[in-house]
Amino acid sequence: MTETHTAQPELPNLVGFLAEKLEGTPYAHFLHLYENIIYSLMIVALVSLLAFFASRRSSMIPGRLQLFMEIVVGGLDDFVCGILGPKGKRFTPFIGTLFIYILLMNLMGLVPFLKSSTSSLSTTVALAVCVFLYVQFTAIRENGIIGYVDHLMGNPRGVIAFTVFIPVLLFFIHIISELVKPLSLALRLRSNVWAEDMLLAVSAQFGIGGVPLFLFNMFLTLLSSVMQAVVFSLLSTVYFALILPHHEE
Description:
This protein is mainly alpha-helical. It has one domain. It has eight helices and no strands. It has helices at residues 14-21, 26-33, 35-56, 64-84, 92-108, 121-152, 165-204, 211-243. Helix 4 crosses helix 5. The protein is globular. 24% of the residues are buried. Residues 1-6 have low confidence and may be disordered.
């Protein structure tokens, strides 16, 4: 998915700067087209390096990096299992990686000459689609196809629901609901991060006199970046809870 570049205010970033310098060449088109993917891959590389160095020489007496990563992983595991129960441990790698990945992409926009790739709808849609597909796969694996369809038709049912009309109506309502969930995830994350970037870009245009405002907006953006990563991960975890068999919730 590509996006049209408009004249929206934007803080300068390295990829955009290189694209301007190479204007008129195939490289400029490539940089414009894959700008957000490049920043996303930078976060992938960073997370991979952190995981590699933290686990390379793991020991019973952890070093600073290993201790930090263990605290992060432990906190994420408590977060997921607090919603899904003990069997939520198998979802911790997915939800935890999602949280760390989104958080770092959000915070990347606070680093001078870098950009938050989550300000792009193509990035957030890709993340939401991953959540959607994994949720549907888990639902079918845990309930079976027949059980999943039965769940969409409103299982468990009350006395009034033992008709043909009500289950069919609930089935279509749940189908629409399932399709709206990834759209909601993608738009919420993208809109908030994009607004944060625009806020910083506009406040930066005030020059020296706008430094206090810019620093205040930086603080708000930092808080919002963390909050948006938490909200995305929380909603993703809740979506898993909704499709798991009731005895696992």
